[in-house]
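okkk here we go again. third time trying to get the zinc ion bound version out, last two times i messed up the smiles copy paste (missing a bracket lol). double checked this time i swear
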Amino acid sequence: MSVKYELKRSNRKTMSIKVEDGQVFVYAPVLTPKFMIENCVRRNEDLIDKKLNDPRINVNYDLQNDDEIYFLGKKYNLQIFTREKSRFLIRDNNLMLYGSSIRSISSDYKKQLCAILTQYVREAKDELGIDFDLDFKFYKSRWGCCYSKKNLIILNYLLACLPYNLIKYVIYHEIVHFTEGNHQRRFYQQLEKICPDYKKLSKELKDYTILKR
Ligand SMILES: [Zn+2]
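finally!!
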C-alpha cells in the first residue's frame, strides 16, 4: 500500500501522523527531508491502514501535542504548553493544557476528568436517592466496575471523554450491578427503568475504544 497523505510543516520538533475522518496528515518540522518523512510513513503503514479501516472512535490515555483528544464526546486538537501556571482551556477546536511539566499537566487533566464524572455520579445519586463510594482508575478495556459488597463503583476516568448520555448510561449500568450481579433479564429490566434508551446507548458505546499505543 502506498499511503496518500497531506504534509503539514511547522516549527515543531518531532514528526507525527494523524488519521482524521479517513484522511492521513503528516506533521513534520520545517527542515525534515522528504525521504525521512516517506520512511516514517512507510514504517507506520500498518498502523495507518488499521486506523483508516477502523470506524471506531479512539480515546487516548497519553497526552501528545497535536493529538486528537476527546472531551465530553467532542473531538479537539490537543495543545500542550509548559508554563508555571496550570490551566485548562477550550477554544474553538483546541483543548489547551498548561502546566509546569507534562507530568503535572497529565495529572491536572486527569483530575479534571474525575471532577466531571464525580458531578454526574452525584446527579445520579440524587435522582435515585442512593449513596455509594466512588473511585477512579485507568482501565484499558472497560468503562466502569461495580463492587457491590464494598458499595463501591470504580469508573475509568477516560469515561469523561465520551458524550454525556453515554457517561450517564455507564453510571446507571454500574448502579444496577449493586442489585443484579449478572447481565441477565432482571438486570436489563432494572436498567430499563432508570435508563429507558439503554439499548441504543449500549450500541453507541461500542463505537468508542481506548487507544492502546
Ligand atoms: Zn455490567
